[in-house]
Design brief:
Elements: E1 2-8, H1 13-22, E2 28-35, H2 41-49, E3 53-55, H3 58-63, H4 66-73, E4 78-81, H5 90-95, E5 100-104, H6 118-127, E6 132-139, E7 149-156, H7 163-188
Parallel strand pairs: 1-2, 1-4, 2-3, 4-5
Antiparallel strand pairs: 5-6, 6-7
Helix pairs in contact: 1-7, 6-7
């Protein structure tokens, strides 16, 4: 049984969806949530779902490898970022080569990079009159949203869509596809 850690900074809907998807699995299980914001919605979700939670500070994340020690102690095999807003440090990337993915709420390389997350992405897509948007699932490297693309899933944008209605469409894509892609990746690691 592979153990998955989910890194999240926001409400945690994707973290919960991953947890629910793997709950009855014989292949993998979400066994930890790592969060950098004590007041984030994902904290309450972790408590409600009884998933062990690790709260991290910027200093501990970037100036020590204590999180890596914790991940190894818990036997974490795979990391799924789900709305985690900090750049991943080299020591984690090196410890989990090809075993760390991120989900981005746009079709990369468009609308990616530092500062492009959540509603900011959807507002940019709508303001620029795009005809479609979607999600990108990619490997994590040392740069925001530049890791190798694993999968993209698209949705049409109607002339009446707003950033809010586009966000709803994107969440549906995320909840449907992210767990399936993570399952495929986790199944392929040794």
């Amino acid at each position: 049984m592979k153990k998955i850690a989910v890194f999240a900074s926001g409400s945690g809907s994707n973290a919960e969806r991953l947890y629910e998807y793997f709950k009855g699995s014989t292949v993998a299980k979400v066994t930890m949530i790592v969060c950098n914001k004590p007041d984030a919605g994902v904290v309450a979700r972790a408590h409600r779902l009884r998933i062990p939670l690790v709260l991290i500070s910027k200093r501990s994340f970037y100036e020590s490898d204590s999180l890596l020690y914790t991940l190894r102690q818990e036997g974490i095999d795979f990391i799924a970022l789900a709305g985690f807003l900090w750049l991943i440090p080299d020591y984690l990337i090196e410890a989990y080569p090809g075993k760390m993915v991120n989900i981005h709420p746009a079709l990369l390389p468009a609308y990616g990079g530092k500062g492009m997350y959540g509603h900011k992405v959807h507002e940019g897509v709508i303001q620029n009159g795009e005809k479609e948007s979607g999600i990108t699932i990619h490997l994590v490297n040392a740069h925001y949203d530049e890791g190798a693309v694993i999968a993209q899933f698209k949705t049409a944008i109607s002339p009446t869509d707003t950033a809010d209605t586009l966000a709803e469409k994107i969440h549906l894509l995320e909840h449907r596809h992210y767990p399936e892609v993570v399952a495929t990746l986790v199944s392929s690691i040794s």
